[in-house]
Task: inverse folding
């Protein structure tokens, strides 16, 4: 019966998910301290932050790649694939840096490394990589949306809004309401000011190949 199964050594990581923007790579982490925000809370409270592991598994061959080995006090966030590159977000808490590393599609060579000051954000709550283009964003628990890189943008959003996608100078958000009945909407905002310029009913969905669906 063993020939029915493919054994993949993921160093104890027992859950993988499809890498956003890719059809062939899956990723997983050991979440030793939870997400970035939880690791940051430990660091700010004076506790040592152990590095987490971030692995990629290629489908269908099951090849395992660990392109970045974090050091003590460094913590890896959620990766993303965009424009043929795989981007990894890392926070170096002792150095006070947010680091974005971009690799080729085979995860063999680092193409670009960008460093941002950690002081640019109030905290690491929902600090993420988004598109398009590749961006470092943060949606704080105080209902503020920020783009930290490649531009610097900050504005207030609704408490039920969450960022979906960018297209040119327009930012698309998803929101929901329960009254008079549950429904979801897509809100379109200006990049520079956050001003709402359009809204329409539907639930947002990004397909593995990057196509955008609105379910109505």
Result:
């Amino acid at each position: 019966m063993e020939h029915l199964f493919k054994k993949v050594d993921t160093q104890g990581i027992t859950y993988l998910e499809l890498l956003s923007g890719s059809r062939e790579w899956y990723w997983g982490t050991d979440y030793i301290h939870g997400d970035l925000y939880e690791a940051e809370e430990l660091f700010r409270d004076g506790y040592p932050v152990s590095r987490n592991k971030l692995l990629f598994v290629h489908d269908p061959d099951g090849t395992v790649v660990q392109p970045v080995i974090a050091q003590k006090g460094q913590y890896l966030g959620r990766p993303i694939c965009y424009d043929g590159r795989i981007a990894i977000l890392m926070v170096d808490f002792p150095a006070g840096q947010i680091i974005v590393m971009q690799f080729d599609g085979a995860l063999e060579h680092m193409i670009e490394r960008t460093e941002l000051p950690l002081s640019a954000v109030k905290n690491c709550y929902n600090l993420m990589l988004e598109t398009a283009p590749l961006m470092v964003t943060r949606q704080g628990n105080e209902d503020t949306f920020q783009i930290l890189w490649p531009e610097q943008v900050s504005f207030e959003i609704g408490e039920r809004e969450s960022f979906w996608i960018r297209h040119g100078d327009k930012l698309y958000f998803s929101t929901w309401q329960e009254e008079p009945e549950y429904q979801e909407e897509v809100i379109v905002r200006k990049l520079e000011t956050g001003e709402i310029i359009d809204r329409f009913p539907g639930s947002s969905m990004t397909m593995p190949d990057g196509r955008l669906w609105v379910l109505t």
Remarks:
- The radius of gyration is 18 Å.
- The chain has one helix and 19 strands.
- The first strand starts at residue 17 and ends at 18.
